[in-house]
Amino acid sequence: MYIVADENMALVQAFFGHLGQLQCYAGRQLSAEQVKMADILLVRSVTPVNKQLLAGSAVRFVGSATIGFDHIDQTWLAQQGIMVRTAPACNAQSVVEYVFSSLAYLSQKQAINIENKVLGIIGLGNVGSLLAHFAQILGFKVIGYDPFVTRETIEQVDLPTLLSSADIVSLHTPLTTTGLYPTYHLLGKDNLSLLKRGAVLLNSGRGAVIDNGALLTFLQQQPQHLAAVGLDVWEHEPLVNTELAQVIALATPHIAGYSLEGKWRGTEMIYQALCHFLQIPTQHQLADFLPKLTHKLIWPNLDSLWANYAALLRQTYPIEHDNQAFRQSLLLPTAERGLAFDTLRKHYWSRRESSAYDLYLTPSSWVEPMTQLGFKIIV
Predict the structure, then answer these.
(1) Catalytic one of 97, 237, 268, 353
(2) Which pTM does this prediction carry?
């Protein structure tokens, strides 16, 4: 069996090497010639998988170690009888911790009061619903917008109401261009002004859900309207709008879901799906490869649950390092910035999720919420 894979897929050799001949290429430049003889194709979100790539190939299974389908022509692949599997929710915890790390950083850097605010979540799928759950534990009031799902534990409102009511707006939708509710440029020149004055706007979903040009114009024309903007995803990646990056408070290179667990769990899920497709037993699991941490966390003993959680996240994920590294890359000549964007992602540091840490916690009243937020508690 011949397997072609994105060279940047985490642990691809460790998980898939025993299944057949494995050949790895740069995912963003993957060509039809390279996959022509492959039986199995393993990709990430940077590879468009469609007729142009796969017509005439031997591929019968496509696995994408991502939570979304927007880079895959599902209709055409289904017509060809090609099995497609992704890794839904593989990095949900990672993205949620990214959002709260962003808020912890912005509250400190911009002196924004985050506690007990209204969090508006656009997109209530796996990531959005987990974010809502964590936010409710932390004392936020949560409202959500998603025309496709109903979540009984979340107050759902229309988009204009969410934008005008939320103190924090966080986007977690797939990127779609068709249907009754396309998300392409969901936020743009016609509704950015609806955002509540003093709000925080975060996008760690898909870049083009916000019209980046319209956002830049809005921020230039009304620089005091929003308290802060943080973007992890961008239109036209890997070539981002450098002017926009310069005027926002937090800018990172599409790494919200890039915790070690988030990346490796996606590979594990695709490996399991492929073994099921091939009707063979699995030989590996994620726990076989995750390194053990020796660093222990001590309860900060601050006044509120949010303050303690934020302080712990500032230790486990000092997000300003990603912000600084990305901004440094934007100082390079234009022709080098795209490669630098991909390099930051390819060589991303081994960020760990809360579940990797032992937290020594004395007040027993905090054990239950901190366990729900993902930490391993030692009383």
Answers:
(1) 237
(2) 0.89
Q: Which residues contact 318 (CB under 8 A, 6 or more apart)?
A: none
Residue-wise pLDDT tens digits, 82-128: 999 999 999 999 999 999 999 999 999 999 999 999 999 999 999 99
CA angle, 12 then 50 then 275, to 5°:
35
- Domain ranges within the chain, ordered by starting residue: 2-86+259-284, 92-251, 291-317+349-379
Q: Find the catalytic residue in 172, 206, 284, 351.
A: 206
Q: Is 320 noted as a catalytic residue in this protein?
A: no
Q: Is position 155 annotated as part of the catalytic site?
A: no
Q: In three state form, how does the secondary structure of 274-309 look?
A: HHHHHCCCCCCCHHHCCCCCCCEEECCCCCCHHHHH
Please give the Cα distance from 221 to 287 (Å, whole number).
50
Q: Catalytic annotation on 254?
A: yes
92-251 has CATH 3.40.50.720 classification: yes
The superfamily in CATH containing domain 2-86+259-284 is NAD(P)-binding Rossmann-like Domain (3.40.50.720)
Catalytic one among 185, 254, 284, 345? 254
